[in-house]
Design goal:
This protein has 323 residues and is α/β, with parallel strands linked by helices. The protein is 28% helix and 27% strand. Helix 4 crosses helix 5. Bound molecules: NADP nicotinamide-adenine-dinucleotide phosphate. NADP nicotinamide-adenine-dinucleotide phosphate binds next to helix 4, helix 5 and strand 9.
Length: 323
């Protein structure tokens, strides 16, 4: 089967399209014929091996798992003998490893049936970004109807989900993005939009919750926008040093939070079975829809990664693996 690998950590030039043996599912896994695989900043970190601290898990000098990719959608090709939730031919989506390939394996609890109204490309843009946004809003900020929520980085992969989910939970949503994404986030349902190129964040403590996905504003600035008792969810950002990335900032914030009237919480958005099922239910029962900006062929993975690095993407990028 065809797959996108990198034998070492590095920049785009380490990506190779190659031929590998088809994987064999364990007894609690299914084999998926991959239709589409989502791209996100996690893949960029796995490609470059930065921040270095992550190599403790992914391989110190070279990647343990050569095939990239986490988000997936596809059709079940075969099932292990202990699998009960899926059968051959089911259309599924979720998050596993090695999804930039024509076939991959996943445990059954890492998958859900694909909502019928989503295309395979849309479904592949769902698990990582959708579950991250869901955990941030539902579990960490505990957003209630009528609350005021601010999403910083609203035009990106997680942000485009967060704007829609916060609206789905009945909140007023202020989306913060650059000028080129203003119309895009408005179309996602944002109640108001701040073009951060021309306008600063308000300092009147109006937001019950802020989800910061850009990670480059001082905490003192963000706290001026938060209502008393409000929650700042520190979701991401590509700044920080090469050893720990943005983790130092978020840990400092979490510690500082003990002494403050605001909750400052570091977001850990791992894809777990319950939020994945909850996300699938929301998508099935509402108009919340993953925003796919562009799709690329598997052979074009380096072009897709280059597009991700450009920061011009509205919503998500997806690799189309099979028709
Ligand atoms: N904690 C977790 O579990 C978790 C899970 C998933 C992702 N993440 C992290 O969350 C971050 C966002 O992920 P993503 O997939 O949404 O990335 P993305 O698709 O690249 O989106 C990031 C967005 O931030 C915007 N942005 C950049 N600078 C900004 C600024 N100063 N103010 C406001 N917006 C700004 C960018 O566009 P514009 O500048 O054009 O508006 C872009 O739309 C990444 O750092 C990722 O690693 C964390």
């Amino acid at each position: 089967m065809k797959a996108v690998i990198r034998a070492q950590y590095g920049n785009l030039e380490v990506l190779q399209v190659t031929t590998l043996e088809r994987p064999v599912p364990k007894k609690n896994e299914v084999l998926i014929r991959v239709k589409a695989a989502g791209l996100d900043y996690g893949q960029w970190h796995l490609m470059t091996g930065t921040p270095y601290a992550m190599r403790l898990a992914t391989g110190l000098t070279k990647p343990k798992q050569r095939v990239l990719g986490t988000d997936v959608s596809g059709v079940v090709e075969s099932v292990g003998r202990e699998v009960t939730r899926f059968k051959v031919g089911d259309a599924v989506f979720g998050a596993t490893s090695a999804t930039f390939a024509e076939f991959t394996c996943a445990r059954e609890d890492q998958l859900c049936l694909k909502p019928e109204r989503l295309s395979f490309e849309q479904a592949a843009a769902s698990a990582i970004s959708g579950v991250t946004a869901l955990i941030a809003l539902r579990d960490v900020a505990k957003v209630k109807p009528g609350q005021s929520v601010c999403v910083i980085g609203a035009g990106g992969g997680v942000g485009s989900w967060a704007v829609q989910l916060a609206r789905h939970f009945g909140a007023d949503v202020t989306a913060v993005c650059s000028t080129s994404k203003v119309e895009f986030v408005r179309a996602l349902g944002a109640t108001s939009v701040i073009d951060y190129i021309n306008t600063s964040l308000p300092t009147d403590g109006r937001f019950d919750a802020i989800l910061d996905l850009a990670g480059n504003r001082p905490l003192t600035v963000l706290r001026k926008s938060l209502a008393p008792g409000g929650t700042l969810v520190l979701g991401g950002g590509e700044g920080g040093d090469r050893v720990f990335g943005g983790v130092g900032r978020t840990l400092r914030a979490a510690l500082w939070s003990i002494f403050l009237e605001h909750r400052l919480v570091m977001l850990v958005g791992f894809v777990k079975p319950e939020p994945l099922r909850a996300l699938a239910d929301i998508v099935e029962q509402s108009s919340v829809t993953p925003a796919v900006d562009r799709t690329f062929l598997l052979d074009e993975a380096a072009d897709a990664m280059r597009a991700l690095e450009s920061s011009q993407v509205r919503g998500k990028l997806v690799l189309r693996v099979a028709a």
